[in-house]
Amino acid sequence: MANDQATAAGDLLRVEDLHIGFHLHGGLTPAVRGASLRIRPGKVTALVGESGSGKSVIAQAILGILPTPAQISGGRILFNDPLDPGASIDIAALAPDSTAMRALRGGRIAMIFQEPMTSLSPLHTIGDQIEEALRLHRSVSHEEARPLTEEMLGLVGFPRPARAYDRYPFELSGGLRQRAMIAMALICHPALLIADEPTTALDVTIQAQILKLLKDLQARLGMAVLLITHDLGVVANMADEVAVIYHGRIMEAGTVEAIFSDPRHPYLKALLAAVPHFDMHPGERLVALRNVPVQTDALVGLRPPPRPRDPGATAPDVLLRVRGLTHRFAVRQSAWRRGGEPPPPAVNDVSFEIRRGECLGLVGESGCGKTTVSKIIMRALTPSAGELIFDGGDGPRDLLAASGSELVALRTRVQMVFQDPFSSLSPRMTVGAILREPLEIHGIGTSASRTERVRALLRAVGLDPRHASRYPHSFSGGQRQRIGIARALALGPDLLICDEPVSALDVSVQAQILNLLEDLQRELGLTYLFISHNLAVVDYVADRIAVMCRGRIVELAPREVLFRAPVHPYTRTLLGAVPYPDLGRPLDFATLTRGGATDPGTWPGAFRDCGEGPPLQPIEVGAEHWVLAHADADARELRP
Amino acid sequence: MLRYVLGRCVMMVPTLVLTSMLIFTIIELPPGDYFESYIAELQAQGEGVDLKQIEALRKQYGFDKPPVERYLHWVGGMLQGDFGYSFEYQMPVNAVVGDRLWLTVMVSCFTILFTWIVAFPIGMYSATHQYSWGDHGLTLLGLLGLAVPHFLLALVFMYFANVWFGTSIGHLMDPEYLGAPMSWAKVESILEHLWIPVLIIGTGGTAGMIRRLRANLLDELHKQYVVTARAKGLPPFRALVKYPLRMSLNFFIADIGSILPELVSGAEITAIVLSLETTGPMLIRALQSQDMYLAGSFLMFLAFLTVIGVLISDLALVMLDPRIRLGGGSTK
């Protein structure tokens, strides 16, 4: 299958000097400027770059699904179909909706997309949508197609394909939806699969499963894959060849070994330095691709100076103590579906403490309850049970018991930075008004001093104070997240809850925001509760890390300890599923179980709550290293 | 599912009871009753009034009784299919409405069909060719239809229909067939007249429909699942019909609720200008003359159709949209 000679004829697909422009404001804005690329049969080629670099546009051009304003203005895309040797088709010259192009699209070249939530029609069963692809390209009847579709569903890992056929996408989890997408793309056995950020929207353990699936199917069906990603960890684990794209040009291309062992182009080196990874030395800083200077000194003095610590005290200085937090969401009694057991609590007996000046990382996969915890601390949700003791330097106070003016005053002490920088800022308010609003609500300062504060806040997060009169839409995602951080800082809080603050951002911007948060913490003596599903990011910012699974904290340890010696099986799976941008440390696909790491059934007995016997409790297995297990568990089981 | 349908049906009862109370109150609000306005009218025309006969009629229809009793009598009658007696026409409401009702339903059905047949292709074209000359031109045409008053269009159409085709002015049929029993000639005459009201009433609705379909479809066209369908190799038109069009139909189904009452009441002004034998002008006349049983029963009938229409569109949504059917708030 593999063609060892890199001749033009041996390539499955060659992109030659491709130019693509967008018709905007009467002119043609170039998005791809003379990119050349080759994909060899049966190999995985990774196309790496930031958003806006033109990598998705190239994929759309190969598939002939460029959006209307885009136009191929030069170059060739040559496709050599292995089923029809000798004939070379120039896709760039084909009309997008011609019969010849439609026969290639979905039949010989297929694509899977980033967002499994929106890529499937919610009104049609997945079986219907997958079968449609088959029947478009093969003359088969529904009776013949259904078993083939079910076979494909089984192949991508649906446990009961016959039942899955009649499922609607919204009944499935993100991982299963992406499997359905893969089934749809592969049902016609294409020669080339284009995977556009196929795992970016997924949790890390699900990502590992999908990557394994893609790799297995690629070997089994002997197809080539064009993998578009910004995650160099995914590249190192999946790709045979790599092309790095920047501003519509290919900067560097070669085998994955050559690229990782000897990156030549400065852009690629910068990209590698901008991503947090686990081998960073303590205190090592990320290098953002474009550095944004910040002036935090404008904010110093905003907050009261930290209380001098009693030199004789040995216990840690705790800012927030969370004890026995439990929250159960009320389930609406559906009119036509009654009964069934009440779901387990979203947050179940969660206890931890956040020390003054530290950054506590809270890690877990989507749905584990970490955002619920943050909402409870913000007093946006009232828990079913539990205790929140906040000590802002003026004596401990019960956050949950606070009400009225006491609660209003306490709200200035805890502020939040949200995940989505696009929807968390009102599009109808100027940035200045957004930053003034907290001050106005709490009646802080005069009109003039508020304006001064807004300017200081903007400077502190690296934005131009003159931009205060602009509206959020004129800022990029990273700049908006800076505005969100500035808003959270406006009241001079003690505790900042950052709920996935960099998940929606590009790698290079991510480094800027992480550095900003770090600077602010150091300069202002802030305390963070940093919630994320990205272990590398948490590893970079956090001092201690709590791992959450199914509403419970299963492990809590200092950063170095957790990553060096994880004890809980869930933590281990989580860490094992992170792809490293390092060829020497490939993912161990064999140990990644299909059932998912969140299934306690796969855990050893010491960590399993069987419903009878004594409840699980945190057990100290090392200095400040706690694991949720049975009290009478064998010490050997609790060893890393 | 059955439970849901039953629940919805039970919920209709209090709605209708409240509506009937409201209608009765509003009709009772103006001072006087039908007989008083009748006497005033007769006196204005200089005719003598037989007060005794009127007093007898008042007694016969219970106008001397307290309002609550009259309300119960009215509602009770309606439950048995007796909608009361129209004083104006001097016959039971059932008989007054009867012959007009089917003409109205016919006009409305043709109008709705016309709206759909015109609006769907244009809406789909406008959405898929956004900001093209065709889109702008058709939009302009639609807006013209929306902006020109119906009565003006009605007058213009009547004139040209008479000049060019010799169609008689006004009415749904030639005058000779008014009140005549049904015959082929009468049906032909009706069909000859029908296109004028259908076109006039339809233009406004069509424009609104095009705009809404275009807006809904434009939202859907940029969704990721449309790209997925294209990436599968679906021909553009089949992809359009199967995915985004179906998604954008929810608003259209939700509209059915308001279509049902429009079937029997819509476009009163046009109907008056064209002297159509439909129920619209009759309702207006009944309200003016305080012909309370006719007006009340008719309004009640409209309310009933609205409730039924909403029920039908809700059930259709449940059947057509699996997210509503299976979601039940349990999943995202």
UniProtKB/TrEMBL annotation, chain A:
GO biological process, one term: peptide transport
Protein name: Peptide/nickel transport system ATP-binding protein
InterPro entries: AAA+_ATPase, ABC_transp_ATP-bind, ABC_transporter-like_ATP-bd, ABC_transporter-like_CS, Oligopep_ABC_C, P-loop_NTPase
SUPFAM superfamilies linked: P-loop containing nucleoside triphosphate hydrolases
GO molecular function: ATP binding; ATP hydrolysis activity
Keyword field contains Disulfide bond: no
Similarity section: Belongs to the ABC transporter superfamily.
NCBIfam families xrefs: PRK11308.1 (NF008453)
Pfam families: ABC_tran, oligo_HPY
Keyword terms of this UniProt record: ATP-binding, Nucleotide-binding, Transport
Domain of life: Bacteria
ABC transporter domain boundaries: 13-272, 320-575
This protein's record includes keyword Transport: yes
Organism in which the protein naturally occurs: Plasticicumulans lactativorans
From TrEMBL, chain B:
GO biological process: transmembrane transport
Coiled coil regions, renumbered to chain: none
Domain ABC transmembrane type-1: 101-311
Protein keywords: Cell membrane, Membrane, Transmembrane, Transmembrane helix, Transport
Membrane-topology annotation of the record: Multi-pass membrane protein
Record keyword Transferase present: no
InterPro entries listed in its UniProt record: BPD_transp_1_N (IPR045621), MetI-like (IPR000515), MetI-like_sf (IPR035906)
Subcellular localization, as worded in the UniProt entry: Cell membrane
GO CC entries: plasma membrane
Main location: membrane
Family: Belongs to the binding-protein-dependent transport system permease family.
UniProt protein name: Peptide/nickel transport system permease protein
Originating organism: Plasticicumulans lactativorans
